[in-house]
Design goal:
By secondary structure, this protein is α+β, with helices and mostly antiparallel strands. The chain is built from 9 helices and 20 strands. It folds into 2 domains: 225 residues, Rossmann fold; 127 residues, OB fold (Dihydrolipoamide Acetyltransferase, E2P) (Beta Barrel), CATH 2.40.50.140. Helix 2 packs across helix 3, helix 2 runs parallel beside helix 4 and helix 3 packs across helix 4.
């Protein structure tokens, strides 16, 4: 086994099609050694196909995958030194926990003593030593998750691939396991690629995130880059929650734009690329940037208040029907806001709120309040 970690993975202009239907189109990525990269996107965007190409389960139509500068395209899956954690864990039901963890080492002919030593080491690392003689059906979902990760790391892989590894866990356990797995991967220093459709999972775990849309890279960057500086309306809506306020550009300068909302409110925002006077735009304001403030310039009307533990979400609408969500810290007893009550809203750091061209966006679909 390689015995090392932190290998560089380069995906170079990879494309793939199923029966002539494109699944990936000219995707290029560079995964730095020891990085945890998340492939994020909606169902059908190509993220699982890309993971399977790296694993060797699918041969791409065009392009190349390299590890440390060496192409691995002609290597079978078993020779790529890749550890995989599947969505359903894929543990062998007839093997004990120890048997599962040591399987990969035994399969490639390691000495029994070496297999036993490495298995014990990995079980200790994932805090499963006392479960070594149990079978998968005697474990909880979180425990199976730990065993699957231990099995993947036991063979000292050059790359670890995680395919929706937390989707079978309940929400509370999912967060705990995300923290644990991130810590284990970081401690191992191994280069990892995570496939997920869960934006919070990607934001909390990844060093870098790649957002895929219809087989293409929409944007790549750090979690804060994508959340605070989305380059497209798709990324802006897919990463986190946001409010999109329709407006038109009244004037545009090199340092700022003045826009007027459909409710007649004038807002000074950062300049948008390629936007000029008269253009229809969408001002993106995250729910946590909105505050209820009697001196605020925006008037809205309360629809309902949703208590979510540490925060309350106020769902409201503008006079033109545009739906808004406002996140405020929870106060004892909750907010005393009746449905239909008018509230004034202010925006914190409006200059940091991105503005996008409304273009051909189906505005009627975007802004109709949900029921």
């Amino acid at each position: 086994m390689s015995g090392s970690a932190g290998h560089r993975v380069a995906i170079q202009r990879v494309s793939h099609a199923y029966a002539g239907v494109p699944a990936l189109s000219d995707v290029s990525l560079d995964v730095a050694p020891g990085t945890l990269l998340a492939l994020l996107g909606p169902s059908g965007c190509g993220k699982t196909t890309l993971l399977r190409i790296v694993a060797g389960f699918v041969r791409q139509t065009r392009g190349s995958v390299q590890v440390d500068g060496v192409p691995i395209d002609d290597l079978p899956a078993a020779a790529r030194e890749v550890g995989i954690v599947f969505q359903n864990y894929a543990l062998f039901p007839h093997m004990t926990v120890a048997g599962n963890v040591g399987y990969g080492l035994a399969a490639r002919g390691e000495r029994a003593s070496a297999v036993a030593e490495r298995t014990a080491e990995m079980l200790e690392r994932v805090k499963m030593s006392t479960y070594a003689s149990r079978y998968p059906n005697e474990l909880s979902g979180g425990q199976q998750q730990r065993v699957a990760l231990a099995r993947a790391l036991a063979v000292s892989p050059r790359i670890v691939l995680l395919d929706e590894p937390f989707s079978a866990l309940d929400k509370a356990l999912r967060l705990d396991m995300q923290i644990e797995v991130k810590g284990l991967l970081r401690a191992a220093g191994v280069t990892s690629i995570l496939v997920t459709h869960d934006q919070e999972e990607a934001l909390s775990m990844a060093d870098r995130i790649v957002v895929l849309n219809q087989g293409r890279v929409e944007q790549e960057g750090s979690p804060s880059d994508l959340y605070d500086r989305p380059r497209s309306l798709f990324v802006n809506r897919f990463i986190g929650h946001t409010n999109l306020i329709p407006a038109s550009v009244a004037s545009a300068g090199p340092d700022a734009m003045q826009v007027t909302t459909t409710d007649g409110v004038s807002l000074r925002v950062a300049p948008g690329k390629g936007l000029g006077a008269g253009d229809a735009v969408l001002v993106s304001v995250r729910p946590e940037r909105l505050t209820i403030d009697d001196a605020g310039a925006i008037t809205a009307f309360v629809r309902q208040v949703l208590p979510l533990g540490p925060v309350d979400v106020v769902e409201a609408t503008l006079a033109d029907g545009t739906a808004l969500k406002v996140t405020v810290p929870h106060v004892a007893g909750g907010l005393a806001l009746a449905a239909g009550a008018p509230i004034r809203l202010a925006v914190r750091d409006l200059a940091a709120c991105p503005v996008f061209s409304a273009g051909s966006v189906p505005v009627d679909q975007l802004f109709r309040p949900s029921h």
